[in-house]
Amino acid sequence: MTEKKHSPKSSPCVQITGMGIVSAIGHNIAEFTRSLADGKSGVRRIARSTTPPLAVAIGAEIDGFNFEQMLGQFSDMPESLTQSVQHVTRRAPFTIQTSVISALQAWRQARLDDKPIEPERIGLVIAGHNTTQNYQYSLCSDFQRNPEYLSPRYALQFMDSNQIGVLSEIFNIRGEGFVTGGASASGNVGVIHGARLIQAGLVDACLVVGVVADLSPMEIQGFCTIGAMGGKQFHDQPEKACRPFDALHEGFIYGQASACLVLESGDSANARKAPGLANILGGAINLHATASAQPDIDGETKAMNAALQQSGLAACEIDYLNTHGSSSPLGDKVEIQAIEQVFGDHFPRVRLNATKGLTGHCLYSAGVVEIIATVVQMQQGFIHPNINLENPINATANFCGATAVSQPIHSAMSNSFGFGGINTSIVLQKIPADTDF
């Protein structure tokens, strides 16, 4: 482990100034925060019926989502914004509607409706790919009976870039915009590229939206076929199925969430007097050159070390690490070995947990969900529990137990790793609540 501090490269400070979420454990940041602190799991039996039946009917799906009702919570929203939302979301797919709600939450927390930024100076990154499979699957039987059944808008709606069109029209975003794909690392990939847009001076702020993974029975069967998805041994006790770093883990448990961050340069946030929630000190992406789903200790280690190098922090200065922690036996084993290698003597002291134990694995949006969880814990001064961690696979790791613990967090790391050898890590720093502008 390298104890010496590194000097970060000179680049604009990137802050998080807004956050929004729609998930299985909360439809806004306040509900999500309470669920984290209480150790509330969103994993349950999946109620929807499908043809054929789901291979594994356990997951943390978004429950009770009503777009019109949730839109009604923004009653003081400017009329122009309300009309724009209603125009482009009428009969929109579920993935679009959840993105819009999480983005509205983040946009308004960042005060971008009453303290705006020039539209050309705002970027948009959609974190997630292949996001419309269940939407397409649901239309297939009707299409086979009558091809003309298709909506005239289907040609736009089946493309991931529809998220860019809808959100840019709602918020009048006219800077750079694109979709980032990185399997389960998509969220972190999106955040890192959003931060890079700001650091390059191309935009002053960037909306990063982690899109709901709305899987069809085909994708669920595919994950089961390769042995990636768990839930079989606890099919009668679904709340116990997601077990990151526990000896009885058997694979990831499907989760759903749309999560959004507003990233902004420190200068822009200060000029607008928009309170910063956290600084992004560093973020790294690498590949370990494989077409498989196998994790790689060298790739994961390099990602964490590179993020630390960018941040200017030594490993011993990290108080807390939000692990990838997918509940996959091999994935958990490799990650904990990589963390131990990176943190060395500090390994027994850095606090660890896995948000997926509560939310399930939200796939494309997981990285954004877990950054939000990290920032929430920083702000509130607690570490959320690992509710099913009964027999840890590593006896020296400083895992949080069955209940939340109070702890100040000044600096934190969040990992996300994806199939196809995609390794990412991000370093965050708390911004004191009494920061002057």
Automatic annotation (TrEMBL):
GO CC terms, sorted: cytosol
GO function term, MF aspect, one: 3-oxoacyl-[acyl-carrier-protein] synthase activity
Domain Ketosynthase family 3 (KS3): 11-430
Pathway: Lipid metabolism; fatty acid biosynthesis
UniProt keyword annotation of Transferase present: yes
Presence of the UniProt keyword Nucleotide-binding in the record: no
GO term, biological process aspect, one: fatty acid biosynthetic process
Keywords assigned by UniProt, alphabetized: Transferase
InterPro entries: Beta-ketoacyl_synthase (IPR000794), Ketoacyl_synth_C (IPR014031), Ketoacyl_synth_N (IPR014030), PKS_Beta-ketoAc_synthase_dom (IPR020841), Thiolase-like (IPR016039)
Family of the protein in this entry: Belongs to the thiolase-like superfamily. Beta-ketoacyl-ACP synthases family.
Protein name: Malonyl-ACP decarboxylase
